[in-house]
Amino acid sequence: MDLPSPSPAAVAALAPTGTLRAAINLSNFLLVTGKSATGDPEGVSPDMARTLADQLGVGLELRKYKTPGELADDGPSGTWDIGNIGADPLRSEYISFTAAYCEIESTYLVPAGSPLTSIDQVDQPGIRIASAARAAYDLWLERNIQHAELVQVSGLDGSFDAFVEQKLDALAGLRPRLLSDVERLPGARILDGCFSTVQQAIGTPKDRDPAGFDYLVTFVEAAKSQGLVAELIAKHEVVGLSVAPAT
């Protein structure tokens, strides 16, 4: 695999301390699938950061965040150099995102006996949707839901609990997670199709030298076209994660 080499300016922009500080969202169970003997996260996301650090010729420090919202909030603080989270217009105000390197379908789970049979039926008055606050798909719902009520709670487990305990009409989520959730609820169904795809990208703070971001863009496209992303998905045996289209 012949990934592109960075310029000195790109290295300085992406690793100003001499170490690539990569922010990792631990709540994304598709991109972080395990933990090493030393406690570091393992999976597609950490491996993308590891490969990038190798290309830059610098060390790697994985900075762990419990949620994507906390990771994004830390962007302007200068505590990380790259952040591996879903690209979103709100986050793009202060983070420059590459095109996605992989994507995940977002859809709805509905309870037994629900009259909802398609995604386009969900956004209507009287419908209540459980969603994990500040997840990438939740941010999409905030912008696009016009008639239904969005019930936002902390975390994936929290949104599932709210859906069950409050007898809500739909649970929004990533399809792979919903495939496990549906097994816990007799008669529940996952609606066909998707309301959005979460675009998993690499971001860097906007106040950096553009040379760093330009290299990230090139790196991500090469990682997709040369098979690195597909290789990592296969290595970690992730179901429900797809290589994003080339741009």
Describe the structure.
The chain is of the alpha/beta class. The protein folds into two domains: 8-102 and 197-243, D-Maltodextrin-Binding Protein, domain 2; 104-196, Periplasmic binding protein-like II (D-Maltodextrin-Binding Protein, domain 2, 3-Layer(aba) Sandwich). It contains eight helices and 13 strands. It has helices spanning 8-14, 44-56, 68-73, 136-144, 156-165, 175-181, 210-225, 228-235; strands at residues 19-25, 34-35, 41-42, 59-65, 82-86, 95-97, 102-110, 128-132, 149-153, 170-174, 189-190, 196-205, 242-243. Strands 1, 4, 5, 6, 7, 8, 9, 10, 11, 12 and 13 form an eleven-stranded mixed β-sheet that branches. Strands 2-3 form a two-stranded antiparallel ribbon. The two termini are 20 Å apart. 44% of the residues are buried.
List its salient traits.
D-Maltodextrin-Binding Protein, domain 2; alpha/beta; eleven-stranded mixed β-sheet; 2 domains; 13 strands; 247 residues
Strand proportion? 25-35%
For the terminal residues, how far apart are their CA atoms? 20 Å
Number of strands: 13
Q: What is the CA-based Rg, rounded?
A: 19 Å
Could you name the CATH class of the largest domain?
Answer: Alpha Beta
CATH topology-level name of the largest domain: D-Maltodextrin-Binding Protein, domain 2
Helix content: 25-40%
Structural class: alpha/beta
CATH architecture tag of the largest domain: 3-Layer(aba) Sandwich
CATH homologous superfamily label of the largest domain: Periplasmic binding protein-like II
